[in-house]
Amino acid sequence: MVQIAAVARKAEVDANCALHNGGKLRYYTGTPPATIEASATGTLVADFDLPNPAYQSATDSGSEATAAVNPVATTNAVATGIVTYYRTYTSSGNDPADAVKQGTISGVGGGGDMEITNTSITNGEPLSIGTFTYSQPRQ
Hints:
By secondary structure, this protein is mainly β. The chain has one helix at residues 6-18, and strands at residues 24-29, 44-49, 59-60, 64-68, 75-76, 81-89, 99-107, 114-116, 120-121, 126-127, 133-137. The chain has one domain (6-137).
């Protein structure tokens, strides 16, 4: 099995996180596209502006390197729907060319890549990010 040293895990996390500086975090409804290279599907429900720098410097626990997102400003929902997946983008924010990461969304305890308090969002509803991390396991 391939193993990645702590110094390499931290460097990988920091490099990936830097792609998000001044970027976007977006919530969508519907089935996620099969690949991140495909255009987003469903309805865009939330569009967060990520700070610059987007993440704190990575730390390593021995089993994985992790970086926590810096505080993200509250945003208002741009549509109504049940969100099922998210995408992050570089500062250009073009879909799909500038997409960096895609994952599922579920309610807390639902096992999604991102868990949020309420997946049913109403247009105009204020939304905030509590914690959001990026990690790379030892493997």
